[in-house]
Write a structure and sequence with these properties.
Protein name: Glutamate-1-semialdehyde 2,1-aminomutase
Helix content: 25-40%
InterPro entries: 4pyrrol_synth_GluAld_NH2Trfase (IPR004639), Aminotrans_3 (IPR005814), PyrdxlP-dep_Trfase (IPR015424), PyrdxlP-dep_Trfase_major (IPR015421), PyrdxlP-dep_Trfase_small (IPR015422)
Keywords: Cytoplasm, Isomerase, Porphyrin biosynthesis, Pyridoxal phosphate
Number of domains: 2
GO cellular component, one term: cytoplasm
Mean pLDDT: 93
Oligomer: single chain
Low-confidence stretches: 157-165
Radius of gyration: 21 Å
Subcellular location: Cytoplasm
Strand content: 15-25%
CATH topology of the largest domain: Aspartate Aminotransferase, domain 2
Length: about 425
């Protein structure tokens, strides 16, 4: 396509004049991979079409929510009906209760839930709840885990044991992150030493159990088990950030995956988003009744939101949850994702390209490394320059993956065996060019 016929470039230039960087979320700018972002005009099923009319097989899925694919008939019907009844009321609705009941029914660790509008809002509120419920200030997070852009969570690890955070964003005062302890993911020794030093002051440990902002890195079963034990021992709360994992890796979320190997396992607080909104702005946090009753108006931990429990968003979320509860849904989704991942691994191996990949449910990730990494430091060893070539090779041929080395991918129920086969075939061609 010539520059004169490419509509994406002039749209991007126009956007940059009125929006910082031309985008409303940084990774969309293609800064990491280079080139011009694709401006999407429409989507249906497993596909998106850009401003030029080019079709892409979509493995972003709006960064996770579109587990049914775009434009699912049952979801569209529910949203259209709700929109006719009213966009927003600022008052309770029955649908909020129904969605809360559905979440509680699917996730045994949750007895009460509060609906909000974004994953960042849910994560921020969960931290406030943990501090309010325990009367403590310190929080533990892990390098490479992203919990939204709340100030106290925009930190990275420094040198040494249990280093208190240094802000990774301008505009975050040092005083805001002074109580945030950042540890290495999957490092049991660091975790134990942090509790030995600060156990009486730790309000919570917050973790992405399958970290999608390191592409796809699992917390090991021994690591999750030790987190749970130490939190219980020291009176801290264990917070599972399932904004990305929840109802995506399994019907019961990542916590149900870990419960297979850790009998009786439950987190104290769960943070959710993405799939529970079905593509609408909706998120939630929930936990045991004794913890959640610290929230206003019952308790002294304040949180509020004008659009919380929005009637159109809850309709979209409820319709999505109804569909993913159908018998065999996750078995079929998992099989499709596994076929894709195994095919990519085989295609890379055939061309001698270092490559490793993993998946759970409808979520997957891969690295241009011979073995799967276990933490942020090893993730950073992946070949960024080669990834950029891979990304653009796929994009030019009609396969849309995340424009960043450290972001997970998503398969939907709308992806057909033909879509998966086409993707693997295209990837095989791109791997050939990477081998040279």
């Amino acid at each position: 396509m010539t520059p004169s016929t490419d509509r994406n470039l002039p749209l991007f230039e126009r956007a940059k004049a009125v929006i910082p960087g031309g985008v409303n979320s940084p990774v969309r700018a293609f800064k990491a991979v280079g080139g011009t972002p694709r401006f999407i005009e429409r989507a249906q099923g497993a596909y998106m079409w850009d401003a030029n009319g080019q079709r892409f097989i979509d493995y972003i899925g709006s960064w996770g929510p579109m587990i049914l694919g775009h434009g699912h008939p049952a979801v569209l019907e529910a949203v259209q009906k709700a929109a006719l009844e009213g966009f927003s009321f600022g008052a309770p609705t029955e649908r909020e209760v129904e969605l809360a009941e559905a979440i509680i029914d699917l996730v045994p660790s949750i007895e009460m839930v509060r609906l909000v509008s974004s994953g960042t809002e849910a994560g921020m509120s969960a931290i406030r709840l943990a501090r309010g419920a325990t009367g403590r200030n310190k929080i533990v997070k892990f390098e490479g885990c992203y919990h939204g852009h709340a100030d106290a969570l925009l930190v990275k690890a420094g040198s040494g044991l249990a280093t208190f955070g240094n802000a990774t964003s301008a505009g975050v005062p040092a005083e805001v992150v002074q109580h945030t302890v950042v540890l290495e993911y999957n490092n049991v020794q660091q975790l134990e030493e942090a509790f030995a030093l600060h156990g009486a002051d730790i309000a919570c440990v917050m973790i992405e159990p399958i970290a999608g902002n390191m592409n796809f890195v699992r917390a090991s079963v021994p690591f999750v088990k030790r987190c749970r034990e130490l939190c219980t021992q020291h009176g801290a709360l264990f917070v599972f950030d399932e904004v990305m994992n929840g109802f995506r890796v399994a019907l019961g979320g990542a916590q149900s995956v870990y419960a297979r190997d850790i009998p009786g396992f439950e987190p104290d607080i769960t943070v959710m988003g993405k799939v529970i909104g079905g593509g609408m702005p909706l998120a939630a946090f929930g936990g045991k009744r004794a913890v959640m009753e610290h929230m206003a108006p019952l308790g002294s931990v304040y949180q509020a939101g004008t659009l919380s429990g929005n009637p159109v968003a809850t309709a979209c979320g409820l319709a999505t949850l109804r569909e993913i509860r159908q018998p065999g849904f996750f078995e079929a989704l998992s099989a499709s994702t596994r076929t894709l991942v195994d095919g990519l691994v085989a295609a890379a191996a055939a061309e001698g390209v270092p490559f490793s990949a993993d998946c759970e449910g409808g979520m997957f990730g891969f690295f241009l490394l011979p073995t799967l990494p276990q933490n942020y430091a090893t993730v950073m060893q992946s070949d960024g320059a080669r990834f950029n070539r891979l990304f653009h090779g796929l994009l030019d041929r009609g396969v849309y993956i995340a424009p960043a080395l450290y972001e997970a991918g998503f398969v939907s129920a709308a992806h057909t065996p033909q879509d998966i086969a086409e993707t693997i075939s295209i990837a095989r061609d791109v791997f050939k060019s990477l081998a040279n």
